[in-house]
Specification:
With 251 residues, the protein is of the alpha/beta class. It contains eight helices and 13 strands. Helix 2 links the parallel strand 7 and strand 8.
Length: 251
């Protein structure tokens, strides 16, 4: 059943009003009619099967038929702080990371980021990114849409990291040592409800200066297996590993 995320202001008791691009998708892509049913998600994470009662060019009305008892969110809240990569790699991280359960994304202007965003470019990209995570959330039947923050420096990320229970960063030098910090050991100690921040460097990884700063501020450096992963692969490795630990092994 097709799923749509509806802003809180568009929920009126048991009535739902759908506006914006979703009206075009419902009417002209899916070609739904009055009487067809869809799933509507509330921003708080609740979802309901709704029956369409009215369609026009500007809005679609639906009525709640049944509230769903479901939760498709990871048992731990994982935020991915992604060093800005080249080309459209960040879009891949956002789309697939959403499918794998990320709660939020923070783009990071790291020292080795080749890409530099100015104000206009950032605003335009964030609009596109919001569309990507919304569509990925609908496709993967998420209960919530991940948040996307504005781009920050590594120093700013550290300043804002105090709210997290566990803070990690993938460090390729860790993968080269014999006495490495095991990512598997760390995630096996996570508890349901923990807030986890995982930092992924851009192409070239984190600089020595950034690695030192992160370690001095409570971040654990980890290796993600014995191989060096591309920046767009690392975040997906992290999320898939945490999903397997909590949702398949039942830990």
């Amino acid at each position: 059943m097709q799923r749509y995320f509806i802003p809180a202001d568009n929920w009126l008791d048991e009535q739902v009003v759908i506006t914006g691009n979703d009206t075009h998708h419902i009417s002209h892509v899916m070609r739904f009619q009055a009487g067809n049913k869809i799933i509507c998600n509330h921003p708080e994470g609740k979802a309901a099967i709704c029956e369409i009662t009215l369609l026009n060019n500007d809005e679609i009305h639906a009525v709640v038929k049944d509230w769903l008892d479901e939760s498709n969110e990871l048992p731990v809240s994982v935020t991915i702080a992604q060093g800005l990569p080249k080309s459209d790699k960040l879009e891949l991280v956002l789309q697939k990371g959403t499918e794998l359960g990320a709660a939020a994304f923070i783009p990071v202007q790291a020292e080795r980021s080749v890409v530099v965003w100015d104000g206009k470019k950032e605003e335009k990209k964030l609009v596109r990114f919001s569309k990507i995570v919304k569509e990925a959330s609908e496709q993967s039947h998420r209960n919530k849409i991940p948040q996307i923050s504005q781009v920050v420096s590594t120093e700013k990320l550290i300043e804002e990291s105090s709210e997290y229970d566990v803070k990690l960063f993938a460090y390729e030098e860790e993968a080269k040592t014999i006495d490495f910090q095991s990512f598997g050991t760390i995630i096996s100690k996570l508890e349901t409800g923990n807030r986890v921040l995982v930092c992924i460097g851009p192409e070239g990884g984190f600089s020595d200066n950034e690695a030192t700063l992160l370690k001095e501020n409570g971040f654990f450096s980890v290796r993600l297996g014995p191989r060096i992963l591309r920046t767009e692969t690392a975040a997906l490795y992290v999320l898939a590993s945490i999903s397997y630990q909590f949702e398949e092994l039942g830990c």
